[in-house]
Design goal:
The protein is mainly beta. The chain has 1 helix and 9 strands; from the N terminus they run ββαβββββββ. The longest helix has 4 residues.
Length: 102
């Protein structure tokens, strides 16, 4: 898993590419990127599955902000990004959420 950040020159925003590797995804057929930036909507479009089994998605986020997120595998299992910028306790569960800072 990894986060790749590309800051835009024309406005205070950052394109963040989220990548969930095949090892972490396991046998998952689908993975969704769910977090503050999409109001934790679990009905979002799934991430793109690559030939090597990784999942990827790019999202443009406002700069100078912090966002909590997790990956939802097969609409059933929540997974963190273990290379996130940080972690915060989830307000709705016992596990932490991943954090991306831009």
């Amino acid at each position: 898993m990894s986060l790749k950040k590309q800051y835009l020159k024309t406005k205070p925003a950052c394109k963040v590419t989220f990548r969930l590797n095949a090892n972490e995804a396991g046998e998952a057929a689908t993975a969704k990127l769910v977090g503050d930036f999409n109001a934790w909507d679990t009905d979002v479009t799934p991430m793109k599955k690559l030939k090597n089994g990784d999942f990827t998605q790019t999202v443009t986020l406002d700069a100078d902000a912090e966002y909590q997120f997790r990956y939802l595998l097969n609409d059933d299992v929540w997974e963190n990004d273990w290379e996130a910028d940080g972690y915060m306790p989830s307000p709705v569960g016992l596990e932490d959420n991943s954090v991306v800072r831009v």
